[in-house]
């Protein structure tokens, strides 16, 4: 059985197209587009990045990603 952390890490790696260990806004947008229009709006993507980017570097590292999605807060109610 896969833990929530393992599942979130797998999602992070799937979104991290260039494998550098950081998610850029472009990588998040591409992942959203892959959902075929069922994903987040542009404003939701921007809010996600802003809320996850704790160190202000403009990218989202694994721990920042885990801080949001690791607890299911990324899912719409």
TrEMBL record:
GO molecular function: calcium ion binding
Gene3D superfamilies: EF-hand (1.10.238.10)
Lineage top rank: taxon: Bacteria
Leader sequence segment: none
Domain EF-hand: 3-38, 40-75
Keyword Secreted assigned: no
UniProt entry keywords in alphabetical sequence: Calcium, Repeat
InterPro entries hit by this protein: Centrin_CML-like, EF-hand-dom_pair, EF_Hand_1_Ca_BS, EF_hand_dom
Keyword GTP-binding applies: no
SUPFAM superfamilies per the UniProt record, alphabetical: EF-hand
Protein name from the UniProt record: Ca2+-binding EF-hand superfamily protein
Organism annotation: Nonomuraea jabiensis
Upper lineage: Bacteria, Bacillati, Actinomycetota, Actinomycetes, Streptosporangiales
């Amino acid at each position: 059985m896969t833990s929530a952390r393992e599942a979130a890490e797998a999602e992070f790696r799937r979104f991290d197209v260039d494998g550098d260990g950081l998610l850029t806004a472009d990588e998040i947008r591409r992942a959203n587009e892959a959902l075929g229009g069922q994903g987040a709006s542009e404003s939701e993507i921007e809010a996600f990045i802003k809320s996850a980017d704790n160190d202000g570097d403009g990218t989202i590292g694994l721990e920042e990603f885990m801080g949001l999605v690791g607890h299911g807060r990324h899912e719409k109610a």
